[in-house]
Amino acid sequence: MDDTLPDDAWKDSFDKLLSPRPQLRELNIIKKNVRVSFNIDSSVENSNPDILSVSECSMPKSNLLNVGDRFNIKRKSGSSISTPCEKRLSSNLFYCALSPITSMKLDGIQIDANQKVSDIGKEQPRAIKHVCFEINGLEDCESDDPKHKSRHSRQIPEEARKRSRSSLVLQPGKWRKSLHTWRRTFQTDGESISVPKVSSPRKRTTNENSSPVRISGRKSAYLNKTLESNEPISYEKEVLRYCAQRRPLRFDTAYAAAKMLNTCKIGEGVYGEVFKYIPKISSESNVVLKVIPIEGSELVNGEVQKTFEQILPEIIISQELSNLRVNPTNSTSGFVNIYNVALVKGKYPQHLLKLWEEYDEKKESENDHPEMFTDRQLFIVLELNFAGSDMSTFTFLNAEQSYYALQQVIVTLAVGEEAFEFEHRDLHWGNILVEETKTKQIDYKLNGKEMSVATKGVRVTIIDYTLSRVTVGECCHYNDLSTDEELFAASGDYQYDIYRMMRDELKNNWSAYAPKTNVMWLSYVVSKLIDGVVYKNTNSRAHKTHMTKLKDFYKTVLTFKSAIECANYIYSLK
Fold first, then answer.
1. How far apart are alpha carbons 267 and 379 in whole angstroms?
2. Contact between residue 180 and residue 300 where contact means Cβ atoms under 8 Å apart
């Protein structure tokens, strides 16, 4: 008698499940209750209390794997270890695009009917994620037609589209790119949702069917109407005057490769590109080059190019704030130092194109390829001092260091208020640069009063005045955000609460001067220093002492009316 055991006798029940030919009918999975993870409010696997009851389906047995939208799925109440708010759950059960844990697609259990069973287990190339926002809570968007069940193909009614704005979630920090992407995706012309694709390197992304968008609009207004001139202003001549030029320079000549050493691209934005280099003949060590296309008819990164009239106030604000470092009455070095402004014309220099492509190869640029520009294209080039990395990426030694960095921000804003009725209006942690320094203290003047702040090894610089408001002479320069509904509907960080708080403070009149907005942003900055930035040493007595000071200041900061009041309060504590 043969005592040989069968080949699979050594397998237990779990091993049998891993067999390349599982017996699906024996598993009878389609008749069982299945608990599904939605990853809405928690990373816990069963984050939704609903249980799906899957009834028998009438589909052919040969297609048992195609279980996507063919089942009649009904919701039943149940218990769960994580209980998100019921009203926040979307009617589409698989609305979450990517699992935050595995990055697996969760648009339903759908398998291509033409796909072989043997190919199911093979690893598929992971898609690169470029989406910088979430849209949750779309209601009344469900269609009875199975063809419209897919998240990426259903039409969204106008009312539901408006309701979705309250669920616009943007990333903290630099918000313009993600808001711009959201606007392109959720257009108001009733087009179906589409996920923007990114190629490398990217060519022009403009679309004949997509309307150009502009985030806010730069304006200037005379405080005294009698000073307004009846003669039209030549904004081009004014820009040339601030650039100390008679005509535009050739781009490839003004910024030739022979004049720039150790050049690299370090950043980008909807406005344009940012490079860093060392001038071959200059006393400056590192210079940041901010290149902004203007006056062209082509859309750049999906936006209309700025005009001379719109770029002129930004040039004025940058230069006036930079000049405060030598002001005898109100002085600070806390605003970025601008070395030069130039108006150039022509195609991008070849060496800058090559650097753009190298950046795109490493970090996947989201901007249009600069080779799109013609010989007639104009650019404003800002040459700025390199001032370190932004606060969101900087590692502080301890809370003592960040506490004195905060003091530098406070006094710098106070000096700006006193000199130009300055409001930054967008002072998130991506617009605060931090660098190490050997200087022991930084000196300021506030309305003639000398003040000094210890550095504790770091120097802070405020940048990006796109949304800022100043009064220079009798002219007020500001950015009108009164029609920017999506920005005020955004959430995802305390930062987006600040925009709504500013709107309420200004009563949506963005030309008005309200220094309270600077205090609101100081509240935001303190919150990031308490629970946002990275610290190297959190166990020292100095860290714990100054963390307590930060928390105490956070409780009272919104009681101040201006950064000037904050600065006087901080100085009185010394």
1. 17
2. no
- Using DSSP, how many helices (H) and how many strands (E) does the chain show? 14, 21
- In 130-286, the DSSP E strands lie at 133-135, 168-170, 217-222, 249-250, 260-269, 272-279
Q: Which two tokens stand for residue 156?
A: 């969204």
- Is 426 a catalytic site residue? yes
For residue 245, the Cα-to-chain-centroid distance in whole angstroms is 35
Residue 439, SS3? Answer: coil
Q: For residue 60, count CB atoms less than 10 angstroms from its CB and return exposed for 0-12, middle for 13-18, buried for 19 or more.
A: exposed
Between CA 526 and CA 409, with CA 493 as vertex, the angle to 5 degrees is 25
Long-range own/partner contacts, residues 100-106 (CB < 8 A, 24 or more apart) = 100/39, 100/43, 101/39, 101/43, 103/129, 106/37, 106/38, 106/39
pLDDT, residue 359, reads 96
What does each C-alpha distance from 531 to 51, 67, 77, 465, 535 come to in angstroms? 37, 44, 37, 26, 10
- Closest by CA position to 301, among listed 175, 196, 205, 197: 205
**pTM beyond 0.90, yes or no:** no
Q: Quick check: 475 and 220 in contact, CB under 8 A?
A: yes
Written as six digits, the tokens of 134 are 């979430």
Ramachandran region of residue 508, left (φ > 0), alpha (ψ -120 to 50) or beta?
A: left
Query: Mean pLDDT in each 10-residue stretch from start to end of the chain (574 residues)?
Result: 61 58 50 41 38 42 43 43 42 39 38 46 40 38 42 44 51 60 52 38 44 56 60 88 96 96 92 93 85 95 91 94 97 97 97 97 94 97 96 97 98 98 96 97 96 97 95 92 87 93 97 97 98 96 97 97 95 77
Dihedral angle, C-alpha 111, 117, 118, 121, nearest 10 °: 40
CB 461 within 8 A of CB 336: yes
The phi, psi pair for 368, rounded to 5°, reads -70, 150
Instruction: For 338-373, give one letter per residue: b (16+ CB within 10 A) or e.
Output: beebbbbbbbbbebbbebbbebbeeeebbbbbbebb
Contact in structure between 340 and 245 (CB atoms under 8 Å): no
Side chain identity at 547, as an amino acid letter?
M
Question: CA separation (Å) from 435 to 2, 203, 208, 456, 533?
Answer: 80, 35, 44, 11, 14
Among 165, 175, 103, 179, residue whose Cα is nearest residue 137 = 165
Question: Which of 360, 390, 426, 493 is labelled catalytic?
Answer: 426
Q: What is the DSSP string of 512-552?
A: S--THHHHHHHHHHHHHHHTTSEES--SSHHHHHHHHHHHH
Contact assessment for residue 502 and residue 520, using Cβ atoms and an 8 Å cutoff: yes
CB contact set of 15 (below 8 Å; sequence gap of 6+): none
